[in-house]
Structure formats: C-alpha cells, structure tokens
Amino acid sequence: MIGKYGQIIINDKKTLLKEITTMLPYTTIHLIGPSGSGKTSLVESLINIKELEIDELKIVRLQGVSSEDFRLPVVKTLKKNFSFEEERKVVELINMGIFQEILDNPDKKYLVFFDELLRAEASITPLLFGLLERRINGIKAPNMLVMCSSNYGDEYISNFDFSDSALRRRQIFIEYKPSKDDILDFMKENRYNDILISAISDMKIEEIISHGDTSLELEQDTQLGSWSLLNDRWKKLKIETFKAGRLDISKYGEYFFSSKTKKKFLNNLTLLEQLDDID
C-alpha cells in the first residue's frame, strides 16, 4: 500500500523487519508515522537481527539541531554483547565524535539512527545528504548503516520539505502502523504486567493508540510510550489485581491516556474484576 507522501505502508511487524533486513545493507531507510507508534523501539530491536550483524547502535536526536559544528545530542548507546544489555549514556553534545569513531573502527558495524530528522534545522541538509549516502566527510563508510525517523502531518512541525527530491532519492520511506497483535506480542515478550495485558486484549487499535482526537487542549493523547510508563508504574506499585488496577486508573488515568482510552480501559478492568469475583 502506498501513502499520500509516496511512502510504503506496512501494518505487520514481521513484514517490516523482513523489508528492513533486506534493504538496509544497501540504502537508508526512513520510518515515518505519528509519535509514540513504536518507531524507536523497533529500531532498537534491530541489534538482535543476526543477518544485519550490527555491533553498536547510535541514536541521535535531531530536533532543533543546527549546522553549527554539526553537534548532535546522543540520547543512547546500545552495545551488543552476549546478554544484549543496554549501556545508557547521559545526554551529551559531541562534535562529529561518533562519526570519527565509525571511521576509526572499520571492522565494527554501526547503525546510526537519526530521530526526528524533519525537525532539524534546514541548514544541516548538505551535511545530512552525505550521511544518508553513508559517507562521512566525503569518505565512504561501508561499516555504517543509516536509518531515520520522523513524524508527519499538519499537526507536526517540519523544517524540511517532505517532497524534496534530493532528500527522497537518498532514502526509502516506510510507514509502520502497528497492529494490535504486534502490540500484544511486544508486551508479552517484554513481560508487561499481566493485569494490563488482560485488560487491553479486546480493545481496538485506535483505543490502544490514539492521536489527534483529544477534545481538550491539554488532554494527554495515547501512545505506546504511555503503556510503557503505566507498566513501569504498576511494577513499582505491585499492581496484581484488577481492583487495584481499576482504582489506580480511576485516579491517575489522565496522566497516561486520552479520555477515550481511559474509559475503555477502565470499563475492561471493572468487568474483569467482576468476573474475577464471580470465580
């Protein structure tokens, strides 16, 4: 399926990972979609794909970055080892440091992920063109794979022209719309709270993730990150019953969700609590 921006739309995670595994060794891949739809989490999972042979993932956030020295805030470094543990780094500004590291280690394969590419200052476009072609200061870097991500649509700020032919011909654009099964599989694989998983199992995808449909100016929208935050909260609070989950969402659900999602989630928790009492 082709979207309005010429992007390929993929709704299945397995298909998406297959396409990325096939194409990434040869070209830059640009993931687009609403914020909170799991783009960054998906890129982080690529370090586990044996065929890509990625040794290290560099996540670089481009929001607000200008061409001055091309200083990029590194958000996170993931180093591959036998247990795939994460090494989290404090946000720091670097002056081309990661790119020199890539050139200095030709036997080590890197994936550089430019997050929120379209929100960078337009002045860095000439620098980005080289990187999108896997060149550093004009030098070909065969040990560097490149991916980008951006939000799109009228509600998002963009400093680039999405239809710019020079920008488009250096990468392929894929929009990932996660299915409910993908989300549930992700939650189960990452051992999310059982009460949480049970309560969203019959929710529609637009109830699990909603964007741009909130009626109040400051009302929280619902993203995949919202569920992750709630899962962390429930682990800390040791929420182990539907009643405890219902009481927590009744008081604090607005911290995480749109009114539509909170209402459906709360109704499910109430129903499951009643069924649990009957049993």
Please, could you describe this protein's structure?
- The chain has helices at 13-23, 39-45, 97-104, 125-132, 165-168, 180-189, 194-200, 205-208, 224-237, 242-252, 259-278, and strands spanning 8-10, 28-32, 56-61, 71-79, 92-95, 110-115, 135-136, 139-140, 144-150, 171-176.
- With 279 residues, it is α/β, with parallel strands linked by helices.
- The strands form two sheets. The chain has an eight-stranded mixed β-sheet.
- It is elongated, with a radius of gyration of 20 Å.
- Mean pLDDT is 81; it is low at 89-95.
Short summary:
This protein has 11 helices and 10 strands. The longest helix is centred in the C-terminal third of the chain and has 20 residues, at 259-278. It has 279 residues and is of the alpha/beta class.
Reconstruct the topology from this structure.
Layout lengths: L7 E3 L2 H11 L4 E5 L6 H7 L10 E6 L9 E9 L12 E4 L1 H8 L5 E6 L9 H8 L2 E2 L2 E2 L3 E7 L14 H4 L2 E6 L3 H10 L4 H7 L4 H4 L15 H14 L4 H11 L6 H20 L1
Parallel strand pairs: 1-10, 2-9, 2-10, 3-6, 6-9
Antiparallel strand pairs: 3-4, 4-5, 7-8
Helix pairs in contact: 7-11, 10-11
Q: What structural class results from the helix and strand content?
A: alpha/beta
Mean pLDDT over the full residue set: 81
| Helicity level | 25-40%
Quaternary structure annotation: single chain
Low-confidence parts, pLDDT < 50 over ≥5 residues?
A: 89-95
| Radius of gyration, in angstroms, nearest whole number | 20 Å
Helix and strand element order = EHEHEEEHEHEEEHEHHHHHH
How far the N terminus sits from the C terminus, by CA atoms, comes to: 46 Å
Largest sheet: 8 strands, mixed
Number of strands: 10
Shape: elongated
Strand ordering within the main sheet: 1-10-2-9-6-3-4-5
Number of helices: 11
Which band does the percent of strand residues land in? 15-25%
